[in-house]
Amino acid sequence: MAGWRCDGKKLQKYKVIANLLHQGNNLQLNGFHPVLSLSVVTSFPPAQHVLRVHDLTVSYKRIPAVHHVSLELKCGSAVALLGPNGAGKTSFFKALVGLVPLESGWIELHGKNGRSAFAHIAYLPQRSTVDWDFPITVRELVEMGRYQALGWHKRFEAEDRRQVEHALETMDFKDLAERQISALSGGQQQRAFLARSLAQNAHVFLLDEPFAGLDKLAQELLAEAIKTLAGRGNLVIVSHHDLRSVPGLFDKVIFLNGELVAYGDVHDVFTQENIARTFHTHVFSGLAHEPRIPAGTVPP
Amino acid sequence: MNLGSLLEPFRHEFMQRALFGCALIGFTNGVLSAFIVLRRMALMADAMAHSLLPGVAFAIIFLGIMPGTLFLGALVAALLVAFGTQLISRSSRIKEDTSLGLLFACSFSLGLVLLSLSTVHVDVQDYLFGNILGLGDADLWIVYAISLVVLPVLTGLQRPLLLMMFQPSVAGSQGVPVNALNYTLVGLLVLSMISSLQAVGVVLALGMLIAPAATVYLLCDSFPKMFWLGGVIGATGSCLGLLASYWLSLPSGPCIVLLLGLAFVVAYLFSPKYGVISGLIQGRHIHEASLARWRDR
Lengths: 300, 297
Known about the structure:
The complex is a heterodimer.
Chain A: H1 8-29, H2 34-42, E1 50-60, E2 63-74, E3 78-82, H3 89-96, E4 104-109, H4 115-118, E5 121-124, H5 138-144, H6 147-150, H7 158-170, H8 186-199, E6 204-208, H9 216-231, E7 235-240, H10 246-249, E8 252-257, E9 259-265, H11 266-269, H12 272-279
Parallel strand pairs in A: 3-7, 3-8, 5-6, 6-7
Antiparallel strand pairs in A: 1-2, 1-4, 8-9
Chain B: H1 3-7, H2 13-38, H3 42-63, H4 67-91, H5 96-117, H6 124-129, H7 137-156, H8 158-166, H9 168-173, H10 178-217, H11 223-248, H12 252-270, H13 276-282, H14 288-296
Helix pairs in contact in B: 2-7, 2-10, 2-11, 3-4, 3-5, 3-10, 4-5, 4-10, 7-10, 10-11, 10-12, 11-12
């Protein structure tokens, strides 16, 4: 039980909660509406799982893009990753799933690191990186989420089918499951990819600018989906540009500007001062002559 | 044309052999074709096909005309071009398409020069445009062996390949060995190119490798279907093309490729969902519910 920072008594308590949570999930599977069952789940405190990032640095051809970021995020929350273009948001995500080599630092999820941690982190790239004409239906896309657990050859079992159905249902795809992915609206496309990550049984979801180009209704549906995930005890980190909507959508924020400016609860950290320090200065490029912004990290 | 003359090709042993070869080559190329089209490797495939020639020429000059040596020469030449391309594009600022184009033009020219210098009498036409009617036992064995490698590998690697083709970055994060799979795909490409060398030659090999998947791409929205339907279209198209060439006394290679091209044109025009003409015929509204609501106004 490495990674659980608590004494024996607390641990026992959390085990009970985890069991209850599990039952909550089962309730949901028995045909409850996802939003209704959400209230069942959230009536318990979220499981105390932690994503730990320590001294993370990512460089491209010796030019650093993310500098010495250290933070600790509890699962069961929706986190906004804020920062100007070039602040290293995508690099940060890629580092979390092991797509770029780390110059320094480490990442730990539930006390595990390396491949075993990456397996539980799902990364949803920006919409423009997907070939939408690819011959694949929503259902097949979600089935792809099971490949990691199945390996290259194992057969699709009833359990896998159930997971796929559940993911489709949670993201509200009952009628559209057989559609080719380009025949979906922008918001539906985002939720289709969320459904795939759900079927993957991912614990941490990294969403790269999912709200870009969505209309108001689609944004609301996606926000609903993100809250559902956070309510189930997942950690959802979303890179985001619309500052006004942050307090309504997220309960934590990370300000990134080449380096970590601040992170913590929305009502503590989402301040004019931090916004100014993140967006109204040059992105720190690691060069000595630039004015260095002191990384006044606020503890969560 | 009566029934007797229609069935005539099936009575000749060389035609039976050729038909069997065509079905096998067409199926293998057709299945692989889905991967080539979705991975956008068409230009690469073309280049690979042309770069087989110097290998064949080398084999003829130094080892004599034997199917085994031709196979070996072609394989080495194609692999050299494939890895040379990677080497140049990764070690300089030249991009991959440029280095590929450069290498394939050079190696094709080298092949033509070598063949013209060769003291052994060879018909360049056979290698440029294929000669499936001259398919010998050894050739058939090579085709058979190549299919036995390509088809199981593609079926076995279907999941990781699908992940890689759809989103290489996500596949990488899920532990799929993206680079190794890429090289595997190039290797399979070279193998099936060599098998179609006999049937349609280096110039037309691309047709067998692209046309089936291009056709199926317009017909269905599901990858597993695209995979197998490509094989079926490749096999039937090749066999029908060969028969047509016999009935009409036309060269076989071009007939095969033309027939596959014809299938593509039919799909392009009349595919239920993506066809150009069927789109015009069906009218603007596809969704019945919205059509009903629109009429009610």
